[in-house]
Amino acid sequence: MMCLRTIIDFRLLTVILMLFLNCGSAEESAYLHKFPDLTGDYLGQNPPGSEPVVFAPGIVSTGMYTRDVAMMPDGSELYYCVSEWGKAFIFYSKIVNGKWTEPEVASFSGQYLDFEPFISPDGKRLLFLSNRPEKGEEAQPGWRKQDIWAVDRTETGWSEPYNLDEPINTDGNEFYPSITKDGTLYFTKVVDGAAAIYRSRFIDGKYGEPERISDIVNKNRPYNAFISPEESYLIYCSGGGENGFGGADYYISFRDSDDTWSEPVNMGEKINNDRHATSAYVSPDGKYLFFGSSERNIHDDYEGLPVKLSDIKTFQNSHRNGNSAIYWIDAGIIEELKNSANANR
Q: What's the pTM value of the predicted model, to 2 decimals?
């Protein structure tokens, strides 16, 4: 049971986290004291081209462990995750009077480990991973209990969170939800210690029995899969796929109308390189691919040089400090990869 002290401690952690969001080097941080006036799509950021760039440096990508993007269909709200001190928070920013608000913890997040938000294509439901206990249960530390939870959109915001329950959630671990336009739910399920991608059709207002999708996709323990709204392609992470770069990479597989999946295609060095894949997302307008990745190559910058406190602070608040940061790139790369997949069929 969550005691008063725990709640107070959490509120203190939230204050500290917001203060930390406001700090950083002049190069990496977009603001130090006052949140900037951000207008336009995507937090007013300059859109990327064919090369990936860090998304909203100093605002969303701050040097902390940051990943997972979700957006309302009209682009007016953006959600993402931050993990610090063994906690995981879902943050969001929205447009109010033409300006983006300063990121804050979502109403349904904050007390437990919350990750991987996904907003349904109609904007009426948000699903997410959480280790929170169900009513009458004791909270468990760490990631011992991973279930998919949901909140519904109401006139005043999001509803109270509720567990999707069976047949989606079991005594095992289920996570990383992603939904198609027709309501089909894709998610990762761990069975006998191995991760695999499952899907559940939404029929007559409820989810059907989950099915393990093709072994073409599931042959290398994939996880954290994003399904396109039309169910035409799947982007996922895997550490054992072909043509890998040595760590966990992003792969994409394309689906035909007869439910046949293409051989997975490594998304290439622009996306993977020496980074570590965490989660992918394509914006509702289909223009941009967002992906979480960790880079660890900043250490060489100070090889053999005297170390200053300012150097360490710059490194700590940089997106290249080994923590996951959010990148984005023109989604045209998906069509390029589709042509490559078709050429190999």
A: 0.85
